[in-house]
Amino acid sequence: MASLFGNIEDGTIVGDNLGTAIYADGHNGLIVNGAVCDVTCIREIGGFQVCTRGFDLSVLRDATPIGNNVPIWIDIKAMTAGDIALGRSEVVTFVPAQLAK
User: Fold this and answer.
1) How far apart are CA 37 and CA 57, in angstroms?
2) Is the pLDDT reported for residue 98 higher than 80?
3) DSSP-derived secondary structure letter, 98
């Protein structure tokens, strides 16, 4: 999960190179409160699921990493490391780690 505060333009964080690395490392998907670029190439990564606010060709600007495995906010919900994300392209449901079995 990554939060860019919902920015689309100047808020792209992942393209096909980083998407390929994420998927190769753990066969995980990606949830971005912001945008991704290289949409066509990302879609070609078989099994890699991405939920994002949008797509844009701009590069990330005016953003500073603030932490790893720290809570992030998407709209009014805070997500933390270990939460389970269940979703489809149009909706994602989060289950807090302490409630997941």
Assistant:
1) 5
2) yes
3) G
